């Protein structure tokens, strides 16, 4: 079985040594030493000024909206995970969708201004698949109209924009460390800001609003994370460079193997160090995409339609017509991408897709070569793994 992604797991002894230290200290949660160590190491690794480790990426978005005191309408993208628009609604605001760019699949800045009303308080944009939005254009519009900017950077671990972590942009950036993301803490997320006051506010908010043992500074929630999740993050951080390298190799392998496919890939931002977080393929037609998805499923290869449906069609929101997003969402498929995939896995996946395109038929059962490791492309690359290799 080949799923769309597999979480990286360190060798179990690495994790166990952190577990022993937790048992010795008997400190399980509430800003413990491993949470502090993870925050410090992430700050150094990402080269960011401030960050706060929180319980998940959705909570990160909710805390960001609350900390900025947003009200009324928030301009956002219909092409994202459902948590992006849900967090807006959950915080009592109204999402106003603006269609996406045909090339990048990120929110189209040229369409933002016409959506601004006197009730607009912010722009919440997702850097889809780890590819940054047109950050400068969005910030310029926000400055002109006194709007706040939040970037949902859930896909962006390791992405740099103009030689700086993409987490350093906007009033607040948020990310997710969920098990399906390329760097994970099982469940987890983070908020990033350049502003010390906002940082202080969010630090208090994630911990019930405490400002000292018997004092509350504001409305808070339980948004903190624990020692066990921090331990997983500390283990995985040691391997994240290898994970990033491996995904880059796999992506190039896919692009080469699929060079005859009638499909498009998102246009990457020009000022980018990319993290190869996903491998999305935009097929020429929804029919071709669905036939490929079905042919792959016949071989127990499970892709995901990230992101379908368009968030503008959520049943609890007023419908909005987003033609570009609806067209992209109906034709896009993310192919499997994770650190233990081999070249023979990719050969199988790409052969099935090309056969459906060329002959219009689901492939018959393909004979797998004995698993040839993708490292054959790049002998210097060795990935630590716990026996889940094919
Ligand atoms: C994963 C994801 C989230 C939510 O993160 P969780 O940690 O699962 O709550 C939010 N936005 C986007 C774009 C995501 O992909």
From TrEMBL:
One of the protein's GO biological processes: polysaccharide biosynthetic process
Gene3D superfamilies reported in the protein's UniProt record: Type I PLP-dependent aspartate aminotransferase-like (Major domain) (3.40.640.10)
Any Pfam family: DegT_DnrJ_EryC1
Protein name: dTDP-4-amino-4,6-dideoxygalactose transaminase
Coiled-coil features, chain-numbered ranges: none
Keyword match Coiled coil: no
UniProt lineage: Bacteria, Pseudomonadati, Bacteroidota, Sphingobacteriia, Sphingobacteriales
Catalytic residues in the record: 181
Family in the record: Belongs to the DegT/DnrJ/EryC1 family.
InterPro entries, alphabetized: DegT/StrS_aminotransferase, PyrdxlP-dep_Trfase, PyrdxlP-dep_Trfase_major
Gene Ontology MF terms in the entry: pyridoxal phosphate binding; transaminase activity
Organism: Pedobacter caeni
PANTHER family documented for this protein: PROTEIN RV3402C (PTHR30244:SF9), TRANSAMINASE (PTHR30244)
Keywords tagged on the record: Pyridoxal phosphate
Chain positions with N6-(pyridoxal phosphate)lysine modification: 181
């Amino acid at each position: 079985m080949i799923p769309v992604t597999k979480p990286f797991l360190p060798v179990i002894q690495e994790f166990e040594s952190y577990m022993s230290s937790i048992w010795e200290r008997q400190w399980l949660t509430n800003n413990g030493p491993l949470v502090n160590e993870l925050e410090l190491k992430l700050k150094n690794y990402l080269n960011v000024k401030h960050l706060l480790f929180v319980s998940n990426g959705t909570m990160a978005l909710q805390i960001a909206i609350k900390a900025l005191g947003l009200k009324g309408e928030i301009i956002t993208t219909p092409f994202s995970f459902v948590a992006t628009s849900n967090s807006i609604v959950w915080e009592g605001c109204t999402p106003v969708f603006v269609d996406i760019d045909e090339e990048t699949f990120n929110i189209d800045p040229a369409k933002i201004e016409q959506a601004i009303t006197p009730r607009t308080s912010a722009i919440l944009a997702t850097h889809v698949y780890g590819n940054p939005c047109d950050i400068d254009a969005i910030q310029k519009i926000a400055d002109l109209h006194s709007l706040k900017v939040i970037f949902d950077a859930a896909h962006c671990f390791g992405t740099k924009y103009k030689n700086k972590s993409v987490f350093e942009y906007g009033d607040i950036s948020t990310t997710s460390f969920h098990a399906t993301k390329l760097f994970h803490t099982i469940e987890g997320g983070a908020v990033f800001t350049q502003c010390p006051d906002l940082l202080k506010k969010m630090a208090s908010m994630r911990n019930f609003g405490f400002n000292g043992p018997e004092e509350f500074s504001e409305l808070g929630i339980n948004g903190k994370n624990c020692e066990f999740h921090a331990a997983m993050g500390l283990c995985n951080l040691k391997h994240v460079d290898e994970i990033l390298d491996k995904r880059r190799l796999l992506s190039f392998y896919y692009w080469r193997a699929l060079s005859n496919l009638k499909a498009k890939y998102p246009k990457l931002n020009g000022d980018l160090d990319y993290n190869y977080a996903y491998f999305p393929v935009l097929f020429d037609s929804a029919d071709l995409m669905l036939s490929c998805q079905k042919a792959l499923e016949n071989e127990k290869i499970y892709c995901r339609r990230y992101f379908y449906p368009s968030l503008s069609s959520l049943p609890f929101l007023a419908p909005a017509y987003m033609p570009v997003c609806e067209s992209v969402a109906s034709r896009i498929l993310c192919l499997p991408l994770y650190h233990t995939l081999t070249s023979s896995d990719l050969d199988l996946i790409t052969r099935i897709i090309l056969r459906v395109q060329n002959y219009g038929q689901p492939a018959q059962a393909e004979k797998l070569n004995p698993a040839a490791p993708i490292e054959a492309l790049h002998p210097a690359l060795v990935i630590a793994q716990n026996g889940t290799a094919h």
